[in-house]
Specification:
The protein is mainly α. The chain contains 15 helices and no strands.
């Protein structure tokens, strides 16, 4: 514990520097193919631009307004419009045609932020300090579940979203989380001296979370045109993660004291419901996305 408090806690943060290498490599060694054809007012790039544009005109009448902010794929927009977009991505992200997409991207990460901190951070404390008698090797159980779900299963969840569509896989994951969250907490609470059972419950819940989180990043990127993508996704992702991830562990602890040891399972269900709302209020995207 002395080593942990004095210097070891810095090691994970220092390891984060390694991630910067990938950004440097992408910037300096990967050829930019240029922006994909973008349909004004839609949620994602699409080949059938005329069909989607007409659909959006019928739905909310925002396509014409969005077209003023997005350059044509063949370079037909004016130089003034192009310079305006390049100079002000924040203005594009906050403009009327993309406000619903931005609101959606603020809500969608909620279950990932709050769910992650409850399932993988708070849960170890729950196993060790709340469950009576404590579950042995609580932190090892959580570490193994975290590795299996976020390192091993993430690529497979992403592949499923490529095949069956982002929305389908994310919706399945969120509904599963909402239904299984309270059950998982009950199983773990009743798993004193049975670490294998606790691991399987946490693993199943984490697996469901991976089905949401793995396609989520691609879905958010596809929600905005390249000119505003980085700014808009940064606002949405960090808002959802910051609010839900910051509040959830403390709220879970308060619920244990106020309601009961298994009550945070319903908090996970609530977070999943909020994220599902964000997913379904998003503007229509191309088929399969």
């Amino acid at each position: 514990k002395e080593a942990l408090y004095s210097w070891a806690w810095r090691v994970p943060f220092l390891c984060g520097i390694i991630v910067g290498w990938s950004g440097y490599y992408l910037k300096h060694h990967v050829e930019n193919d240029g922006p994909p054809p973008m349909t004004a007012g839609t949620n994602a790039p699409c080949d059938d631009s005329s069909h989607i544009a007409e659909k959006k005109d019928e739905e909310n009448g925002t396509s014409a307004e969005a077209a003023k902010l997005i350059p044509e794929a063949d370079g037909g927009s004016s130089k003034h419009d192009t310079n305006q977009i390049r100079d002000s991505p924040l203005k594009i992200a906050l403009s009327k045609p993309y406000r619903r997409s931005l609101l959606s991207c603020c809500l969608v990460p909620t279950v990932w932020g709050g769910g992650f901190y409850i399932i993988y951070i708070w849960m170890a404390i729950f196993m060790e300090d709340v469950v009576s008698p404590p579950i042995p090797h609580a932190f090892s159980i959580t570490s193994a579940s975290l590795f299996a779900c976020t390192v091993v299963l993430f690529p497979f969840a992403g592949m499923l979203s490529d095949i069956y569509g982002r929305v389908r896989i994310m919706a399945f994951g969120a509904i599963s989380i909402a239904l299984f969250g309270p059950v998982a907490l009950q199983i773990i609470n009743d798993s004193a001296q049975r670490p294998v059972v606790a691991f399987m419950a946490q693993f199943m819940l984490g697996n469901m979370l991976s089905l949401w989180a793995a396609p989520m990043c691609a879905w958010m990127v596809e929600s905005f045109p390249p000119e505003a993508r980085l700014t808009a996704v940064s606002i949405g992702y960090n808002t959802g993660m910051g609010v839900a991830g910051g509040i959830s562990p403390g709220l879970a602890t308060y619920m244990v004291d106020l309601i009961g040891p298994c009550s945070p399972g319903y908090l996970i269900s609530f977070l999943a419901f909020i994220s599902l709302i964000g997913l379904y209020i998003a503007p229509s995207s191309c088929v399969g996305k």
